[in-house]
Design brief:
Structural class: alpha/beta
Radius of gyration: 20 Å
Largest sheet: 7 strands, mixed
Low-confidence stretches: none
Order of helices and strands: HHHEEEHEHEHEEEHEHHEHEEEE
Number of domains: 2
Strand order of the largest sheet: 6-5-4-9-10-14-11
Number of helices: 10
Length: 274
């Protein structure tokens, strides 16, 4: 089967058919905008008009010969390092995806302005490359980067070398129990202040378990902001909303959808607790 035929089949399956179905049975659905995009332009992981400015833009990728690691010159001044196993093509693809997802037009963006991080201690749960923390580093008081992968940890240490006095890498998975490789946020904060925190959580579907291990934190924390992903599993949005209601949090779900695994899902919940 030729590439052009596969492309048209994908446009039919993910664009034309759902567009026709939604137009007929749910003409007021906000999802219709995405299906129309896929119908018009064909299948893409990024069915958003604004994404083109990132997809078509060059990425400044360089190599740190001393460390043997490649990095992106982020926003022209900050070095965002990648692990050894990332080649140039994968770095470019990953970095562009990050920029798209954190554009304020995307439902997945954590903050509308970096000023939201000012004076905060940032909990970067699911830090990976650490882009969010790198953007926030000049505004925050301190950052905890939760990461277990040794290759990512090496890259994170390189990225945050200029700010090593205000970051700590925590080699634990955040979960609902404590053992050699896992830790609850309640356990982590048993000897730390719980004021002026910003919790960013994106952990591939483990968000609900992590929140079960943060009952005390959500009860006791003051001036507490959070951005929690809700798109990984089908019922995450409903479950996390119920959890936040129980803890008397003020929150809202980002408008729009994240197109992931051929599904449109609510991406993120943002909120605050006084």
């Amino acid at each position: 089967m030729t590439t052009s035929i596969i492309k048209e089949l994908k446009r039919l399956i993910y664009g034309i058919i759902p567009c026709a179905y939604t137009s007929l049975f749910s003409p007021s659905s906000p999802k219709l905008t995405y299906y129309r995009f896929l119908k018009k332009y064909g299948y893409t992981h990024y069915p958003y008009e604004f994404a083109a400015k990132y997809i078509d833009a060059p990425v400044d990728i360089r190599k740190d010969e001393e460390r043997g690691l490649h990095y992106v010159l982020h926003r022209g001044t900050k070095k965002l390092y990648y692990p050894h196993y990332f080649d140039i093509c994968n770095i470019e693809k990953n970095y562009k995806a990050l920029l798209i997802e954190q554009d304020t037009c995307h439902a997945h963006h954590y903050v509308d302005s970096l000023k939201e991080f000012e004076g905060k201690t940032l909990l970067d749960v699911g830090s990976a490359e650490g882009l969010t923390s790198l953007d926030a580093i000049d505004a925050v008081n301190f950052v905890y980067l939760f990461e277990c992968d040794a290759e990512w940890i090496e890259a994170l240490r390189a990225t945050f070398e200029p700010w090593k006095h205000k970051i700590a890498i925590v080699k634990k998975y955040i979960s609902k129990f404590n053992d050699e490789g896992n830790m609850t946020l309640d356990e982590f904060f048993k000897d730390k202040p719980t004021e002026n925190l910003f919790l960013k959580m994106d952990i591939e579907g483990a968000e609900c378990d992590a929140l079960l291990g943060a009952e005390q934190l959500f009860t006791k924390a003051k001036n507490f902001d959070f951005a929690i992903c809700t798109y990984h599993r089908k019922n995450d949005k409903k479950w996390i909303s119920s959890y936040l209601d129980r803890h008397h949090c003020n929150y809202f779900h980002r408008e729009g959808y994240f197109y992931v695994k051929h599904r449109l899902r609510s991406a993120l919940v943002r909120g605050h607790k006084l």
